[in-house]
Amino acid sequence: MFQGVLRMLLSAALAAAIPAASVAGGYPDRPIRWLVPFSAGGGSDLATRIVARHVGQTLGQPVVVENRPGAATIVAAQEAARAQPDGYTVLTAGMSTLALNPWLYSDLPYDPQADFTPVSTLVALPIVLVTAPDSGLRTLDDVKTYLKRNEPGSYASLGVGSPHHLAMELFMETIGGRATAVPYKGTPPALQDVAAGVVPLMMADLAAARPLIQAGRLHAIAVPSAARSGQLANVPTFAEAGGPAFEAAAWQGVVAP
């Protein structure tokens, strides 16, 4: 039901976002580009590809997903903002693109309000704190001790201003910890490095991290939410694990130029 409703909403919203002449001329009559500001394999990319396939079936034209990671989603957002407003380019945009970047960058090369037309919500991605199995960080108390030691540690980050980066910074501020953020262009390479022990921990999309958790390649510590996730019922919330009670998630929507 979710996929059917969402593809109808997107199809109708895309038609509303383009000039009437284009609709009258038989929109769409060629493939649609769907830009994703993250690398392939992450939660946002997976959600986009699932919905794009159904939208393409409904509209009768291919929807081509193109990954444009980099610069806290700015690379893809700038490319989308410069595209013709004809309904043939859409962008997966979320907290970083629309809500956080305007506060973090004084020279942002796009205007979230002036350059984009909202199309639809897409997905809310739960976050989970994961550690490397061989890191020795098995509980939230272990993580707090690691972050509060005199020598700063490190953690994998999905870029300055990403929900995952801010969730970790909020957690550290609450407990009085510190660590150096190691930036990655996407979730998959960050998760692979955490699994390999290159970086000991990170806040990650649950959807992307879950297969590695189930395979024993990552250890799930806690989820920053009010209740446990049905996908990882045995993983406690931060409050249950003895940490600060806070909520963090990464939402994504769809916009058109």
The geometry reads as elongated
Tally of separate helices: 9
Query: Secondary-structure element sequence?
Result: HHEHEHEHEHEHEHEHEE
Residue-averaged pLDDT? 88
- Record field, number of beta strands: 9
The quaternary state of the protein chains shown equals single chain
Question: Structural class from helices and strands?
Answer: alpha/beta
Q: In terms of per-residue confidence, which ranges show pLDDT below 50 for 5 or more consecutive residues?
A: 1-5
How big is the Rg?
Answer: 19 Å
The percent range for helix content is 25-40%
Percent of sequence in beta strands: 15-25%
| Straight-line N-to-C gap | 28 Å
Biggest sheet statistics: 7 strands, mixed
Account of the 3D structure:
This protein has nine helices and nine strands. With 257 residues, it is an alpha/beta fold. The strands form two sheets. Strands 1, 2, 3, 4, 7, 8 and 9 form a seven-stranded mixed beta sheet that branches. The radius of gyration is 19 Å and the shape is elongated. The protein starts with a helix and ends with a strand.
What attributes characterize this protein structure?
9 helices, 9 strands, 257 residues, alpha/beta, 7-stranded mixed β-sheet
Topology:
Elements: H1 2-17, H2 20-24, E1 32-36, H3 43-59, E2 63-67, H4 74-82, E3 89-94, H5 95-104, E4 117-131, H6 140-148, E5 153-157, H7 163-175, E6 179-183, H8 187-196, E7 201-205, H9 206-214, E8 219-222, E9 249-256
